[in-house]
Amino acid sequence: MPRASSRERLLAAIDGARGAPAPCSFMIFRALREQCRDEYDFALRQVEMGLDARVQLDDLPIRLGPEVEVEERAERSGGGPPLLHRVYRTGAGELHGVVKRTSDWPYGERVPLFDDYITPRSAQHPVTGPEHLDAVRALLAPPTDDDIAAFREEAAARKAFAKDRGLLLTGGWKSRRVVPGEDRALVGENGGTGTVVDALMWLCGGTEPLLWAYDDPEFLAALIAVIEEWNGGRVEVHLDVGVDLLVRRAWYEGTDFWSPRLYRRFILPGLKREVEMAHGAGARYGYIITSGLLPIAELLLEAGVDVIIGLDPGEGKGTTLAEVREVFGRRAAVWGGVSGPLVVEEGGEDDVRRAVEEALSALAPTGRFILSPVDNVRSDTKQAWHNVQVFIETWRSLTGES
User: Fold this and answer.
1) Which segments within 185-259 are labelled E, that is strand?
2) Full residue range of the structural domain in which residue 279 is found
3) Quick check: is 304 in a domain?
4) What angle do CA 244, 250, 253 make, to 5 degrees?
5) 93: how many CB neighbours lie within 10 A of its CB?
6) Is the pLDDT at 56 greater than 80, yes or no?
């Protein structure tokens, strides 16, 4: 009997088909991606390595409202790092963000609208209160007709490529390469479709939204609704092309930040609507969360999430393998199981083998497990590449794929 395609294997794991071996698909693989010409080359290189590769759609461009003016300037700050200012002047008010240009800042003297580098280095976030709500609405523009046409053209090519090679087609969030000058928004590698609460944190910081949840819940709910409306229009474009899996990045949605009660009030309603959109279009729904998972597990199940992406037993909180299996079992699929930085990049051979064995032993019996380092393999070192090979060989040996 011929071996099932990677698409069939991944869908079987997401849907919980009994008896199917656990596939192995790296959720993010920067070390390899940086060596590849494009998404097609990236997928083929993973297939050659024996992985269950998938084909990801590029994101739609991030556009600012047509009336928005952007000003950028750098300011010296005594003995500290320079301060980088970015001002968005909208017809509904001004948004002014300031970040510290630390030695590891990757964007020169520019400041992206969305990126993980922003929040911990911010001296001032663009959105600081209810007076900025209308400005945010004016700031975030939907994709243009030309954007959508170009997206659909490339999506059709990638869909045909994926079908021809039996690979899963995914849309929504995708780590992206920065293209300087791409548009006035300047988005870092983390922004785009599939970001709601993450976008909230980039605009407002990691503290203020949680304070607003108590001090001004009406404003917080309204602000989240603006971001959800913007994101929802982008999600619809992805779903219209017929993806197999829609992915939402939710690194800032775990209980490292939100209590279950606040999650239920502010995040769950929009998540349910998004899951319903995906299911209505025939797509599965994936949710990337690497820490703070278990206290909101029942809420994710209530929302109808099909696969939890990013189980990290090494660096995550509330992510131990045994507890995750007990809570999720066959109720939802789990993708991950091994720490990428701690095990694959920095561990020895025995560490890699042991981690893969533990992950498969704990979660493969559920029939709803996809093995991956979490959340990335970035290091382009001899040790890391050797450990990647050990990782794959151990998986293949234990699942009978060798």
Assistant:
1) 245-249
2) 6-61+141-177+239-399
3) yes
4) 145
5) 15
6) yes
Closest CA to 285 of 15, 57, 6: 15
Residue 376 CA to residue 339 CA, distance in Å, equals 8
Q: At 204, phi and psi to the nearest 5?
A: -120, -15
Domain count, the chain: 1
Determine the number of helices (DSSP H) and then strands (DSSP E) in the chain: 15, 13
Give me the mean pLDDT over the 128-134 stretch: 97
Environment class of 108 (CB within 10 Å of its CB; exposed 0-12, middle 13-18, buried 19+): exposed
Structure-token pair, residue 390: 């050990």
The 10s digit of each residue's pLDDT in 328-373 is 989 999 999 999 999 999 999 999 999 999 999 999 999 999 999 9
Q: Is residue 327 part of a domain?
A: yes
Q: For residue 314, give every residue at least 6 positions away whose Cβ sits within 8 Å of its Cβ, in sequence order, or none.
A: 338, 339, 341, 342, 343, 374
Pairwise CA distance, residues 381 & 398, whole Å: 26
- Is 357 part of a structural domain of the chain? yes
**Residue 88: inside a domain:** no
Task: Name the one residue in this structure whose structure tokens are 């064995």.
Answer: 357
Report d(CA 73, CA 258) in Å as an integer: 34
Lowest pLDDT segment from 107-116, 185-194, 370-379: 185-194
What CATH number is attached to the domain comprising 377? 3.20.20.210
End-to-end CA distance of the chain: 16
Contact (CB, 8 A) for 201 and 115: no
The DSSP H or E segment spanning 159 is: helix 145-165
3 state SS of 344: helix
Say how far apart CA 176 and CA 174 lie, in whole Å: 6
What single DSSP character describes residue 93?
Answer: E
- Average pLDDT, rounded, for the chain: 92
Instruction: Record the pTM.
Output: 0.94
